[in-house]
Each structure stands twice: as structure tokens, then as C-alpha cells.
Amino acid sequence: MNISDTEIAWSILQKAGYSRTHELPEADVVLLVTCSIREKAEQTIWNRLKHLTALKKRCQKHKPLLKIGVLGCMAERLKTKLLEQEKLVDVLAGPDAYRDLPRLLSLGYRGQRASNVLLSLEETYADVMPVHQTPEGHSAFVSIMRGCDNMCSYCIVPFTRGRERSRPLSSILEEVRMLSDQGVKEVTLLGQNVNSYRDFSEQHFICSEGSTQLSRGFKTVYRTKQGGLLFSDLLDKVSQIDPDMRIRFTSPHPKDFPDEVLQLIQERRNICKQIHLPAQSGSSRVLHAMRRGYTREAYLDLVENIREIIPGVNLSSDFITGFCGETEEDHQETLSLVREVGYNVGFLFAYSMRKKTHAYHRLQDDVPAPVKQRRLEELISVFREEAAKVNMALIGSTQLVLVEGESKRSSEELCGRNDGNVKVVFPKTDLPIQPEKPQMVPITSGDYVLVKVNYGQHDNKIELIWLCLLSLVVNPAAGF
Ligand code: SF4
């Protein structure tokens, strides 16, 4: 989301006449796009701010107008502390106030500390075409909604990013078409809760048939929404724009996976067969305390249903260890859930309590830090074992890989990702453009290559790296 927010803020600033530099000493304005989801993310920004403030003092003579700004969730959460107590920043803009950046900066130049952290019920930046800035230019994030209504008891997002609202379908389609024209090969639809997407814009409000899209056994803390265009409508339309453009989405909530969405993922060859399914815990008791709206059993039923409709699908997840009241037994249930499901990627964190949340007001952060850490390490280790099994099963298979660029390990190797989002590393070589033609071409980022997986090894991370042999696919349809 922060990458996407940066692209939106940058588009607004570009229109106001600002140009971008990647060299800090050249900058007249330094803006940090921030995250409040965990204590550690905020600490990183505090350190960065102190470093920047020291730099500003040192540069006072030759750069008297240097301005420092904080955008996003930390601006929303810590306005007074940032602006009035610590006096570390000149400009603050919350996630719904990026349109106001040019005005805030101009106030900053007049010597005022300026801020706008108002949250909106409508702002989706639908008419702002983001300035996409992926290094290789072949993949892009497209924001489809903002905010969240779920109010999970540990989560600060509903307080920093506001209520859930979806960007109109027409504006999403326009952006995806533009990206396709620019040669982008992979789009990730982005939001806090992408699969609860509902476009209520005027022309669609009456014609919708969707009354509910909840997965079986799941419930919400808010009244079920009615009408509007649903996530399945969006996926359907987006995936038809360019059949050679891969479609991914993140982050979904398990509650919004009705069969229509799953069947569409199965049917469309360009919608990746990889689903992020944040579980957070394997214990129904802890899930209840987290206010996730499902039990372990309902989650496992959903996994079974997904695997029935999309055989071979890759699943990834998020987990929190040491949430309020989590016992050893609860922790063991989480480990057993990870073993039972077999994810190939995981985002695993020790719980850190955030002010304003339901847990902060009502629950006790009673799991000692060393216990949280130990449970996290155990979870990582089980995750790695299971991910290794999932990825090792690819040995001997042929995978369609979208090339990202040079591998970090060697300039003699390239890397990319398969449909299931597994990283693949293979030798850099020229290939015949078509099997029957002798003309050889180098493989470049944005190409699709067919890769025979013949070797797998552990990376430092949870995923595996593959060393492979391959052929170049001019028309990806041949490779699906
Ligand atoms: S679904 Fe829960 S965890 Fe995710 S953003 Fe919303 S409140 Fe936070």
C-alpha cells in the first residue's frame, strides 16, 4: 500500500511542478511514506526522521528551505507528537490528504508547520493516475480500495486508514488498460481487503445481483453490505483486458471467497493460482479474541473448498504469535494448522500492541516478549519445512516464469516468478524466439520463459530458489 500511496502522492506533486530525485543531497523536500502496523515499522521511521533532522541542521546554510514531511499512517496516528512535541517535521499528510500536499508544502515554505490528517468516507484517488515506478517496469500495483471495516482487535488500520471504500470499476479498468498499453505484464490489485470490493458508484448500484459474498462459516462485525459490483465482477473485467497480463491481488480476507470468485480464478488462465489467505492464528479461541469472524474449522473448510475448485493452488498466509491470552496449547494449534494447510509463503510476526485498538482497551498483552519470540521462531521453522515440501513438489515440472531481471546472486543468472509466486533462478542465455526458427534473442525482463525445474534449494527466506533450463515463450498462451 505504501508503494501505491507513493505513486499517488508523486502523481499529485508532479502535476504541481515538483520533480523527483533519488539523491538525498539534491532534495528540497523529503517525504517519508509511513506504516504504523507494528512498533518496529514506526521505530524505523523515528530513526530516519532523527537522521534527516540532523542533516537539515547541518545543511541550514546552503539549503535553508529543506522541508521534511511524513505521509500515511504515522501522520494519522502521531500527529501531535510529530508536529508539536518532537518538532521533527514540517508537513504531515494522512492517507486521505495527499491531494492537499501542494498546499501543505507551500505553507511549509512560509515557515508554518502544516498538517491535514482528515479521514474521508469517499476518497479513493480514482481520478489520480499514479506514476508507476517499478524498477523493471513490467509489473505494477493498482489500488482498488482503501480503508477497512473489519476492526480486528489487534489492528490499527481502521483507525489510520479509515472506513472501507472501493474505487469505481471504470477508473480501475482505465488504469489497467493504460498499463497494458505500456507493456506491463503483471498487475497486483491492491487494498486492505480486496475481495470485499464493492463498487457502489451510481450506474451500478441498482443493477447488481450480489447480496452477500461471504464464505461459508464466516461473519462480519459490520452489517452485511448489499448491492454494488463485487470483486468477482472486477476480476472478470480486469482479466479480460489483456490475456497475457498476469493478475494477482492482495490482501484478501478469508471471509470473502464465495465460489464465484474461486471458479473465476480457476477458469481464467491469467489470474494467478495463488491465494493469500491470512489466518493469524490456528486457535479458535484466539481467533475469537482477535475478532476475525471465523473459527479454525471454518478456515480449514475454506482451504478444502479452495483446493477442490482450484487444484494445485498455492496458498500463503499471515500469522501473529503471542497475541493477548495465547497459551502454549493455542500456539500448538497454530503450528498444526500450518502443517495441515502447507503454505508456500508466510508473513509471520510477534504481536505488538497498538494504541486505540480494541485489544489495547479490552485485553492484556500478557505473553512475555521472549515467549512471543520463541513461538515466532518455532512457527518460522515449521513454515520453512512445509514450504520446502510444497516447493520441492515442483521439481520435474515445467513452469511459466515472468522474468524480473538479474538474480541477486549472480550476473550470470536471471530470476522471475512462476504463477504461484515462487521465485525461479535460471542461467542467463540467448534462446530461439520460436523453436523452428534459428534466430536467437537474449532474455529480458518482462519476457515469459518456460522453465523446466530440475533443482531446488533453500534460500534464507521461506521460499525456495530454482536453478533451471528453459525455452522462451513468445505467446504466453502456449505456456499456460
Ligand atoms: S482485515 Fe483486520 S487485519 Fe486486515 S486491515 Fe482490516 S482490521 Fe486490519
Second-tier CATH architecture of the largest domain: Alpha-Beta Horseshoe
Q: What is Rg?
A: 23 Å
Give the strand order of the largest sheet, numbering strands 1, 2, ... along the chain.
Answer: 17-16-15-20-21
Q: DSSP helix count?
A: 15
* CATH homologous superfamily grouping of the largest domain: tm_1862 like domain
Distance between the termini: 29 Å
Helix content: 25-40%
Low-confidence stretches: 205-211, 459-465
The overall number of domains is 3
The set of bound ligands, ions and cofactors reads: iron/sulfur cluster
Number of strands: 21
The shape is: globular
User: Mind describing the biggest β-sheet?
Assistant: 5 strands, antiparallel
Q: What's the pLDDT, averaged over the residues?
A: 88
| Binned strand content | 15-25%
* CATH fold type of the largest domain: pyruvate-formate lyase- activating enzyme
Q: Supply the CATH class of the largest domain.
A: Alpha Beta
Structural class call reads: alpha/beta
How would you describe what is shown here?
The chain is α/β, with parallel strands linked by helices and 480 residues long. It folds into 3 domains: 2-116, 3-Layer(aba) Sandwich (Rossmann fold); 139-392, Alpha-Beta Horseshoe (pyruvate-formate lyase- activating enzyme), CATH 3.80.30.20; 398-479, OB fold (Dihydrolipoamide Acetyltransferase, E2P) (Beta Barrel). The protein contains 15 helices and 21 strands. It has a 5-stranded antiparallel β-sheet. A hairpin with a 5-residue loop joins strand 20 (448-458) and strand 21 (464-473). Helix 7 runs parallel beside helix 9, helix 9 (231-241) runs parallel beside helix 10 and helix 13 runs parallel beside helix 15. The chain is globular and about 65 Å long. Residues 205-211 and 459-465 have low confidence and may be disordered. Bound molecules: iron/sulfur cluster. The site of iron/sulfur cluster has 10 residues, from helix 6. Residues 1-110 form the MTTase N-terminal domain. It catalyses: N(6)-dimethylallyladenosine(37) in tRNA + (sulfur carrier)-SH + AH2 + 2 S-adenosyl-L-methionine = 2-methylsulfanyl-N(6)-dimethylallyladenosine(37) in tRNA + (sulfur carrier)-H + 5'-deoxyadenosine + L-methionine + A + S-adenosyl-L-homocysteine + 2 H(+). Belongs to the methylthiotransferase family. MiaB subfamily. Its cofactor is [4Fe-4S] cluster.
